[in-house]
């Protein structure tokens, strides 16, 4: 193993650093897709391995695994945009009805609030005003995002192309990347990096199984429950429940409490509101059992790390930051944890 600290390699290192900086600025516009592709490839490789066991063709196995894993995700996002657009259209239409038609949604809510006891009117009106404001802001943001998405359609195509290529080549040649990396690591530090990679793998599994898979399960349960309770857009409500489940301080409660409030103040269906809240409690209690059972097998990541990742990720990487944010912070946690254990072992050896 050569020593990178030798003077004869100084020029080589300097040139490599310059090229790495230039390369970073070159790939910066699509860096989020490359990172996301690497993360998805990590999850796809086991699926591709199972397929390859029967087909014996690595490239075809990876493509089939991508179809099995990635295409449903794209269809899910497409469905979300479609349903939210329909909901926004229906919501706006209900509030722009002519005066000669039936009562608008706003008029119906006003009449309902006025029929409540005097003490409850102020509380109900404040709640509805806040809810209406949040809905209008959310719908406006969504519509602006859709318009911007349509305007930047060519950029979206490029981003998706880079994503698919990154998934394919990281799944196919990911081992070569580690070979290049380990070629520059001194032999005295390889044990540390081996442990670090193992910790990173455990963190990724913990995030996926303990949080993403938990969110999928809770989302499916929520969608089925909302459908049985007779709500429209039950599948969309299930998706929203799953997304909120990813955020540690939220969980499914904003969805079922909002639905219950709608049942009480708009439709007056008290029984359905009670059943919805009970079903929401089932979802919340299920999370307390499912998450530790899945995540505890690999690594226990503090909720603050995930919370910061979910909140800050979208500001840096856009919508994919909901995935990249917690993953990057989780990997950083794994590296620091591995270094901490290395220093503790060194201290024990000295003592």
TrEMBL record:
Subcellular locations according to the entry: Membrane
GO cellular component, one term: membrane
Pfam families: AI-2E_transport
TM spans (from-to): 12-40, 60-82, 153-171, 208-229, 234-253, 259-283, 304-336
Membrane topology: Multi-pass membrane protein
Record keywords, A-Z: Membrane, Transmembrane, Transmembrane helix
Similarity comment text for this entry: Belongs to the autoinducer-2 exporter (AI-2E) (TC 2.A.86) family.
Protein name: AI-2E family transporter
Native source species: Methanobrevibacter olleyae
Lineage: Archaea, Methanobacteriati, Methanobacteriota, Methanomada group, Methanobacteria
